[in-house]
Design goal:
Layout (H helix, E strand, L loop, with lengths): L3 H10 L11 H11 L10 E2 L8 H22 L8 E11 L5 E7 L5 H14 L6 E2 L1 E3 L2 E3 L1 E11 L1
Antiparallel strand pairs: 1-4, 2-3, 2-7, 5-6
């Protein structure tokens, strides 16, 4: 009988140890979305020739190198598009789709006409078929579409 108060006290205080906490799915989702960085990729898009680079930075450099070299060659072969002397910086927005397709989303320049801009976009879009196979960007083990801005400095005499 002298242990009854102690047992009663232990019994009353220990009930909360057996309670299961309910997980609120909305709260968990909100916490996950807050921790999620929407602007960073886990892996850059990569060309077939870049597959050896597992490192994030090496993959990024290879992707940018292949792309800028290709665009330089296209613009060099289409020098006749610019008929007047021009010094300008173009901002090229490129879209890499979830399936690895590459397209020109936008092309802006302060001193370039809409007609010349349209010709540049058309020439670049047609030339993308000559690029090696492009694998899409990856975010959390899923293929995602990504938009990249590439500045192009024109110095046409």
């Amino acid at each position: 009988m002298r242990y009854a108060p102690i047992l009663f006290l232990i019994f009353c205080c220990s009930c909360h140890y057996f309670e299961k906490k309910k997980l609120d799915s909305e709260k968990l989702l909100e916490e996950e979305l807050q921790a999620f960085n929407w602007n960073a990729l886990d892996q850059y898009p990569s060309f077939e020739s870049c597959e050896d680079g597992i490192d994030f930075e090496a993959n990024k450099v290879c992707f940018e190198t292949v792309l800028t070299t290709h665009i330089f060659e296209v613009l060099k072969s289409n020098e006749s598009m610019i008929s007047v002397p021009l010094k300008d910086t173009l901002i090229l927005d490129l879209l890499v789709s979830k399936r690895g397709g590459l397209s020109v989303k936008n092309l802006k320049g302060s001193h370039i006409s809409d007609e010349t801009s349209a010709r540049f976009k058309d020439a670049l879009t047609k030339s993308f078929s000559a690029l090696p196979v492009l694998y899409p960007a990856i975010k959390r083990s899923q293929h995602v579409q990504a938009v990249f801005q590439l500045p192009i400095i024109l110095n046409a005499n």
